[in-house]
Specification:
Structural class: mainly alpha
Distance between the termini: 64 Å
Mean pLDDT: 85
Largest sheet: 2 strands, antiparallel
Strand content: under 5%
Number of strands: 2
Strand order of the largest sheet: 1-2
Radius of gyration: 31 Å
Shape: flat
CATH class of the largest domain: Mainly Alpha
CATH topology of the largest domain: MetI-like fold
Helix content: over 70%
Number of domains: 2
CATH superfamily of the largest domain: MetI-like
Length: 271
């Protein structure tokens, strides 16, 4: 090897080493900048968290110290017999509507996927109509269905059913909620985790049952409103209703979570 070639090789090695050192330096600077950004972000997040915690503590204290809330009245009505009866009716209504809505949703999904244009069109129209009209409006329509069909015959000669006697407030509530939530199920069940969709359906059904109070049904909210008319404890009784709905919804979500964990463990064992 000539001296010139050796010098060229040394220059090449020096250049390569310099480029590698430059790359390492750039990576180090980038890592340092990323660490500084994380520190800055964490600092901002902790400042925001501290402010929110102070505001939350101040709000909770204002609730505890507020004489207008009447905590004694709240505690005194949490286990009131009428309130417990309303809770039990809400649970039963939720379970029934959930089961019917689930079945309706599965049927609608099967019709949409059938490949028959008539069946899929009917299913799509059902989901569109009952999934678009507000649930409260549907309940009011069902409760007044006798104004449209006072005499129900089902097209059978000799059959005459008085719609006023047939469509009671409870039946109107079940029909309105089940059809509305069936459309919700038809949209929610096909995609993603089926168990998660069922959990959302259950919780949403539980929440919308509060609307049946407009039909003078003595569910949880209906009972609370009836008690309000007797003793005028509006805010304390609404707090009672809110606490019970928190308990029921939390229990429903907890049940779904336990079912999801059990399924995950079962799948892990099968692997």
């Amino acid at each position: 090897m000539t001296e010139t070639a050796a010098d060229d090789d040394c220059v090449g090695l020096d250049t390569l080493a310099g480029a590698r050192g430059s790359t390492d330096g750039d990576a180090g600077r980038a890592a340092g900048a990323a660490r500084r950004r994380r520190v800055e972000t964490n600092t901002v997040e902790w400042v925001i968290a501290a402010l929110l915690a102070l505001l939350l503590a101040r709000f909770l204290w204002s609730l505890v110290a507020n004489e207008n809330l009447l905590p004694g009245a709240v505690l005194g009505h949490l286990l009131h017999p009428d309130v417990l009866a309303g809770v039990w009716l809400t649970i039963r209504l939720t379970a029934l509507v959930f089961a019917v809505a689930w079945a309706i949703g599965l049927v609608a999904i099967s019709m949409e996927r059938s490949g028959n244009p008539v069946l899929s069109g009917i299913a799509a129209a059902y989901v569109w109509v009952f999934g678009s009209v507000p649930v409260l409006v549907q309940l009011l329509l069902w409760s007044n269905i006798a104004l449209v069909f006072p005499d129900i015959t089902f097209g059978i000669p000799g059959v005459h059913i008085d719609a006023v006697r047939l469509v009671t407030p409870v039946y109107a509530a079940i029909a309105g909620l089940a059809l509305a939530m069936g459309a919700y199920a038809a949209r929610a069940l096909p995609g993603g985790d089926r168990l998660t969709a069922l959990g959302d359906l259950l919780v949403t059904t539980l929440q919308v049952t509060s609307l049946v109070s407009v039909l003078s049904i003595t569910d949880l909210l209906g009972v609370v409103q009836a008690l309000e008319e007797r003793n005028h404890l509006i805010i304390p009784l609404l707090v009672v209703a809110a606490i019970w709905y928190l308990v029921l919804v939390t229990a429903a979500r907890g049940t779904i979570r336990l079912a999801r964990l059990a399924r995950a463990k079962d799948q892990a064992r099968r692997r």
